[in-house]
From TrEMBL:
Protein name, per record: Putative porin
GO molecular function list: porin activity
Keywords: Cell outer membrane, Ion transport, Membrane, Porin, Signal, Transmembrane, Transmembrane beta strand, Transport
Signal sequence, start to end: 1-22
UniProt cross-references to PANTHER family, sorted A to Z: MAJOR OUTER MEMBRANE PROTEIN P.IA, PROTEIN YDDL-RELATED
GO CC terms in record: cell outer membrane; pore complex
Gene3D superfamilies xref list: Porin
GO biological process: monoatomic ion transmembrane transport
Assembly and binders: Homotrimer.
Subcellular localization, as worded in the UniProt entry: Cell outer membrane
Membrane topology: Multi-pass membrane protein
Source species of the chain: Paraburkholderia eburnea
Domain of life: Bacteria
Amino acid sequence: MRLIRQSICGAAAALMAASAAAQSSVTLYGVADVFFQYLDNGGNHSYSMRSGGNTGSMVGLKGSEDLGNGLKAAFDVESGFNINNGALFADTTALFYRQAWVGLNHEKYGSLTFGRQYQPTFWIVYPTDPFRGNEVLSPLSAGVLAVDRNTLATQAVTGRTSNSVLYKSPNMGGFQLYAMYGFAATVTQPVPEQSGNTLDLGLSYSGYGLYAGLAYQFQHPGTETVPGLPAALNLVDTEHYTGAIGYRIGIVNLQFNYGYNRPHDASAHSLAALLGAARSNSLMEFGATIQATPADAIMIAGFERNVRGVHDNTPGVQIGADHSLSKRTSLYMRAGYMKNNGSATMSWPGVSVSGPGTKQVLAVVGMTHRF
């Protein structure tokens, strides 16, 4: 009888383990991406090996557990790294720089998640950037992350928010709603910064070949340590307005997005006011993604960043091509040109501009492997 009881208990334990395995899952995933770059930076020529030109090199863990009645618990932690030297990407103090969140998802009511997450504004504009918001080679990212003296105190849409609560609705006849609130956060890289609370709202529609989205973000004041300034720079309240639209015609996906960043007036006698560093600016991008063959995609984009009230603007163009060798491995190329006018100093992320008013020319070839 003892042997029978042991067998029954063992069978029950095995069934319970199998049931748990069927209701929950954890997935290890990642990307290894490397490229060779030629850069003409205001007449200074350089060659280098870099990481993440098509898709950021990353490794992550994500999972979910079925809690019953259409409700699931879910999480995702994702670390970015440089494949060329093994270092953490962008912020070496943050293990999960790309995202780190946990929350609940209901098939009928949507999801509510907590942690470091992509902003609604990012999700709204992402489908309309031919270069998919890549943090290294997308001209859209170049415009968002541009640093110039007239907009130092104007906050930028960063793409991710720490200490945030995000609600994402289910798809309702093609419409989807996003709402995020982020609490103040402190970072030390690439420069020390204290950000204020952030509100971000987005609404998108997708159907019949059409995509359209609108987003609004409001950032409360913060501070930033800028090399060369005698004190910490006050970052002013900033409102961000974003519109995006795309339309697919056969193998061609036409894309357009526009963002306007409007800072509030800097406090009298503040460092931002004394420097005149809180000006409005806009970024416009139009382009197309062409799925030439099942294995080949061609991307093209024209763009311009414009600072209001001064003659600072940066128009440019970029082309690219992706060729899939398999479902997991692809080759790619990018070529771009931008011309800074006035005191503008825009270039691709990770490039220190040699001086204002210079041209930037870039050409790369690279490889992406997903696992």
